[in-house]
Design a protein that fits this description.
This protein has about 80 residues and is an alpha+beta fold. The protein has four helices and three strands.
Length: about 80
C-alpha cells in the first residue's frame, strides 16, 4: 500500500514529536538529519522502541529534515562545517 503525502507528513510529525519527547536531540542538517539519542535509562530504551515501532525511514530522510527545519530545529550547513 502506498502512503499518501498527508499520511506520511503526519507520521513524520508524530515521529519527531515522540523522539523529542523521549529526550532525543534532533536537528535538520542539509537534506538529512541527526538524532542524538539519550544515554540514560529509561529514555534510551524508549527512544529505541519509538524507532523500532516506526520502522524503516530512509525513504523519509528529506521529509524528516524538512519537518525539523519547519519547527526551527535546523543546523545551518555553514555552521556545521565551521564546527568540524
Amino acid at each position: 500500500m502506498v502512503e499518501s503525502s498527508a499520511s506520511s507528513s503526519a507520521r513524520v510529525a508524530s515521529l519527531v514529536a515522540a523522539l523529542l519527547g523521549a529526550g532525543c536531540d534532533m536537528w535538520s542538517v542539509g537534506a538529512g538529519y541527526f538524532v542524538g539519542e539519550p544515554r540514560e535509562e529509561p529514555a534510551a530504551t524508549r527512544a529505541q522502541e519509538i524507532l523500532r515501532e516506526f520502522g524503516p525511514r530512509d525513504h523519509l530522510k528529506t521529509e524528516i529534515s524538512n519537518h525539523l527545519r519547519a519547527i526551527g530545529r535546523d543546523i545551518a550547513r555553514d555552521f556545521a562545517l565551521d564546527q568540524i
